[in-house]
Backbone:
DNA sequence: AGCAGATGAGACGTTGATGTCTCATTCTAT
DNA sequence: ATAGAATGAGACATCAACGTCTCATCTGCT
């Protein structure tokens, strides 16, 4: 049952995104299973971490697909991306915190592909005159991901209401913190 | 010699901000000393991590002081803060990644004080009509710190030139990613 | 040169998480 | 109801990092 595996991974994210060094006991308890069963599903800790990473990247890639970021106006595409990615913000928070994953070539490649897609979105937006050209597409892409992770942490720790996630992310990232005098 | 301690902590940050689970061997090698000497300076791993955390918070607090964030126009104060904090972005990146530190009450208290100062800055800016009121001061504060950490990671990994750090941070955070038609 | 202190290299025991095993219990399908 | 499979609980060995120790070497000072 793939659903079973994914539900365990889901629970693992909840623990690991906060404390990447959490013991397997803790993860198993969070998933509602015993440590023995956890080992039956995943050969070991390394495999579990890797699976969580690939799940996060699969979800992120699915969000890019759902948002159809390659189509239409760049700003509208980014707003669609925000809505699509915020539900998986916790997974992105895990990915952001687990730089160690970049040792795995498979995960690294998968990440590169998705990151390139987001960078292309910003580049396209800059060519369309929608996004600012003073900021590099690479930095926009990285900063966007940082803020998505920030949403994930804030929601998990109860500092931000889940309903406010998409709005807070889109408004801050697109419009910045400054009040615009011309748009009352 | 406090300078010696700090130089070791400095080196430790370089390693720990990327990989929080790095072995003491690795940290000692990065600092150019042996593991034995590392143990002579810091009683153990826990003490080392705690010292790195307090160093980061001291530097962050010093940046808030240097920028005089309690004085004058909120936007100008934030720009001063950006300039003051970017040189220590790597330390902030460590603080952001090491949520585990929040177990220590001393560090937790110190963090609360600084976070409250930043939140007060945003609240003041909102009252002055400088910052947008649709975004909560708490989220602005958290997002700002996330982006500072992002700067630290990007610079450390060579994805962003150190000279571009302050500009990229200030422009994105204050003005957002959207191009403003009215300010060519 | 000679001495005191500091450092590096390495050995050693301890500790805690991990991986594997067994066995009793529970769930499920027929 | 019963056989088979799956799960939980716990014991056990392994292993890697940690903390401590000793000793040789190096540095700095007189």
Residues:
């Amino acid at each position: 049952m793939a659903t079973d595996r994914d539900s365990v991974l889901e629970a693992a994210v909840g623990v690991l995104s906060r404390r990447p060094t959490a013991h397997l006991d803790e993860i198993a308890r969070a998933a509602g299973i015993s440590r023995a069963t956890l080992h039956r599903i995943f050969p070991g800790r390394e495999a579990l971490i890797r699976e969580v990473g690939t799940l996060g990247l699969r979800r992120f890639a699915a969000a890019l697909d759902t948002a159809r970021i390659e189509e239409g106006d760049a700003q509208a595409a980014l707003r669609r991306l925000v809505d699509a990615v915020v539900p998986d913000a916790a997974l992105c928070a895990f990915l952001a915190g687990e730089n160690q994953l970049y040792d795995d070539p498979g995960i690294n490649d998968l990440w590169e592909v998705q990151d390139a897609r987001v960078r292309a979105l910003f580049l396209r937006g800059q060519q369309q005159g929608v996004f600012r050209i003073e900021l590099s597409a690479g930095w926009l892409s990285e900063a966007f991901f940082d803020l998505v992770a920030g949403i994930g942490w804030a929601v998990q720790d109860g500092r931000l209401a889940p309903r406010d996630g998409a709005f807070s992310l889109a408004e801050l990232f697109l419009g910045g913190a400054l009040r615009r005098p011309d748009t009352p």
Q: What stands out?
A: Residues 122 and 137 of chain A are 5 Å apart (CA to CA). DSSP finds nine helices and no strands in chain A.
